[in-house]
Write a structure and sequence with these properties.
single chain
Length: 221
Amino acid sequence: MHGNILITLSMAILLTSLLAIETRNLRTATIFYLIHSIFLFSIIISYAFIMENPSLYLWGLTCFITKVIIIPLIIWHYVKRVPRIEYRPFIGFAVSVFIIAVISLVFFNLFQGVIDFLAPTEASTQEPIRSLLASAFTIFLLGLYTLGTRKDAVKTVIGLALLENGIHLVLLSLVPNLSETTMIGILTNVTAVVFILLYLSRTIYEVFGSTDTTKLSELKY
């Protein structure tokens, strides 16, 4: 029963990652990231219950505060002041959808097949940990893909957040019973980085009338 719930959540968090990346309307993309964060919070709380590790509830609480409340609010505050449609990425919509579909399908199955090598533990070879780890590694790659192909400030932030969330899922899957897991998870939240990046991006928009993060190099002190 618990295993089925975690597998469902791992598929849901992967799907919402794809939607957050490819949705061109920035407000809608922000909502998909919010839903993604809610699924991440749900996974952490589920682990806390299944593993009977009370310290994970603290991580879940900080995840809820930072990823479900603070980061989406910061992004939403920003997108209300800029054009609703994402600044054109390096790769067109149709091609990008195809690429991330391939990344998701191929690498999810690949990671499931080589998980014994990537995470040589008994738990990682069994469900639901196997699927959750495959989702985590895939989300990490999707975050890297977003950072490499998007110019828009909001999508850059979402890519950074997805990359970090993938790392959190790997950490949670491999060592859920250690109290240090909670501390590492809490300390590696990227709220401050999100705020700074969007602050700089707002400056770009005020100066250049664009949300293109490549304009950062043109700002002078």
